[in-house]
Design brief:
Elements (H helix, E strand, L loop, with lengths): L6 E3 L6 H11 L3 E4 L12 H11 L4 E6 H6 L4 H8 L3 E6 L1 E2 L6 E2 L8 H11 L5 E3 L8 H16 L2
Parallel strand pairs: 1-2, 2-3, 3-4, 4-7
Antiparallel strand pairs: 5-6
Amino acid sequence: MLGAPAITASAHMNSVPRIARYADRYGMPVAMHNHSRVDPNEFSSPDDFARAIEMGGRAPIAVNLDIGHMVAANHDPIAYLRANHQRIVTLHLKDRERNDGPNTPWGEGDTPIRETLLLLRDEGWNIPANIEYEYPGEDTVTEIGRCLEYCKDVLGA
């Protein structure tokens, strides 16, 4: 085994049956990552995740929830997280605008980053939340530091 609890994949819907065979064979959850592109072969909505999980059958198909992409695709990541937290193995945190809008500095877009962090903390869900720096900024290290400070401020750390 790899020693990892799961694998994440930016896969397409048509690859789920093949991925599911190996996930089932090795007992390794494979978490599908969503994007904002609405296409029948992409993961962009809660229904797409549900379809993949159903297609996977008994295989441990899971979710790598990108809250920024979910907002950009005009879905509610908080509602999805509440209803499906047991299937989510990791989160990607970024700020984006609705209607497939651009990535923005944290706190300037439509993504409920603050609410997501507080929900994880308050519910005690052990789901890793990864900073995904994708907006145009200055120095990468400086911008990652700003994102980390945002998280600390929200959580009072």
